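Morning!

This is the sequence you dropped in the shared folder:
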Amino acid sequence: MSEAVAFKAKDYKNDVEPIWCPGCGDFGDLAAFTQALAALQFDPKDICIVSGIGCSGRFSHFIKSYAYHTAHGRAVPTAIGVKAANPNLKVFVVGGDGDGFSIGGGHIPHAARRNPDITYLIIDNAIYGLTKGQVSPTSPVGMVSGTTPFGLEDPPLDPLPMLLSYGVSFVARGFSSDVKQVSKLVQEAVAHPGFAVLHLVSPCPTFNQVITFDFMKERVAPIPDDHDSRSIDAAFRLALNRDRFYTGVFYRNPGLATMEQKLEHQRKLTMDREPRSLEQLFARF
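The structure's back. Tokens below.
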């Protein structure tokens, strides 16, 4: 009897080298992700990564797995389709703040309603880095950029309260400098039965000189040990706290039915009750 293969983090990396700018927070997120996969011992053939557009959209290019680099803002519905077609796959979505909270923002509440068993990594650098530094939905007021030469006047979206209000069944936040913590959060998100969203703050050293690593390190703090992650009220209190930038698991509700369970229920009400072939179906028309 052959011994089981023990996968290491390097086994999940392919031959495509990352092309992010030196110092980009995405490197930390990529390292944390491969470490999480190694800890979970997933076989690469059982993984599918669906990515959107932006710097983080390149994520799927660097992992040895099935991958789908889809259109801007359409990673979430594409991933839901992948999971519906093959529930046995471990499906991950990777996108940025522009991809997830701007053109693709409308998909998140409906994904929360369906509660598919997928993990969504939103890598937030508060800037459109791939297109050379325009403000994004999470850019702070006053930011000067190519699209806001006199400073941004619109307030930024606040991702954590948004995700909680949508009813996402697992909500967590990490900071790309803390690779060990992000890896642990990815593992917890995967273990959650349902739609898990991990908001990763990942500073851009090239185009965002406001939300920098130094800026974040002064504000980041782990969620207090006595936090009740099953309480939505407690999760909102932490998410709305402006004194500290908390990281960890804000909320989890493992008791909700998943999309896969609901699809199985529908199948039992239809196909199992009245088995039929394609020929029988076509004969009705």
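Headline: The first helix runs from residue 26 to 40.

More detail when I'm at my desk.
O.
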